[in-house]
Amino acid sequence: MKKDILKIFNLQGYIIYKVLIFKRSIVLRVGRPRRIGVCPQCGRKTSKIKQWLPLQRKVHGVLGDKVVYLLLRKREFKCSCGKTFVEILPNVAKWSRKTKGFEKEILKRLSEESFAQVGRKTRLSYHSLRRVVEKLVSPLRLVFKGMEKEKEIKLGIDEHHFKSNKMVITITRVSREKRKRRLLTILPAKRKALLVKFLKEVPERIKEKITEVCTDMDDLLIKAVEETLPKTKIVIDHFHLIQDANKRLDEVRRLEQEIQQEEKGKDIKINPLVFRKAREKLTKRQRTILKIYLAKYPLLAHAYWAKETLRKMYQLNKREEAEEHLRTLILNMEASYDGNLIVWAKTLRYYREYILNYFLSKTTNAYTEGVHRKLKLIQRLSYGFSNVEVYVKKAVLGLLPLSFILSHPNI
Q: What total number of domains does the chain contain?
């Protein structure tokens, strides 16, 4: 029976003296089977016990609605070399009130649930749970773990909202191979100095293998990469480029809508869906509506033409073809009498090389955007975070396998 209890509670290396069951807890009185200690100074074995230390109670887990406690006593040995030492018990940290097994269980629960949910089930406070996370999860140690043998590394860098107007930087590894994609880390603020510091601390053997960095049209991120990784190709993510085109087109639509409302003195609405949606995905009715809008509003027609021409560029396969396509588009936009198109053309010309780098290997930040969706879910489940460091660790815990986090030798 006692052997079964040892297996159930994963207490290999112990013997059970007594099991006490109470209304809200289970107490296991345990001890070590061998009366021998190994001296840390000389390495000799000794059976001479100087004294028994007071009883200690460690939280070992939760079984149903009962908290499981271990009740144990450490022994202080005296070696023939004169050294006195306290034995090290398996699965028990020196100063912790929780066993290592219970701490791993807490991490497993927190990878799927919020602090509040885990706190209710384990009867631990938020601060107790937070201490476990801070102790065992170290994102910066895990960044480039396991990549030493890789031939090529491609990074995805993007920002996302932490809370209110505060932004943080997400860094991922992007790849066509699903097994190679993963979150690397989250920098706790959107600052160039912070990103530069992170990239400078990348080991040289890893830095040499970083061939591409995919990001959006953000000068802060681009300048930081250029400063620290001068040989790396920077790729503007095509999703962000088309998203920017849709935003510019929508600004023209809203401006045209306001002008028409002022001129005619009535509420006129121009349907945004027919402009935002890809042309080939429009229904027959939507195409008819779009045709009417384009004939009626010339400025809107020009902006829509620019957006669709930009989209067609991504259907090309060769960089030379895309370069000629983009050059023609920019020249036509610059020759327009529309100020919005001229400003847009300057933006495309400024980021021209980064945009065309996409056609080298078709690298995208799609995986990073998927990570952002998961991060938003983590924020909703936790009803938001007030501490950015805790958020970063909780995000890493939720997105990386627990075995990967705990396998680091320094943890």
A: 4
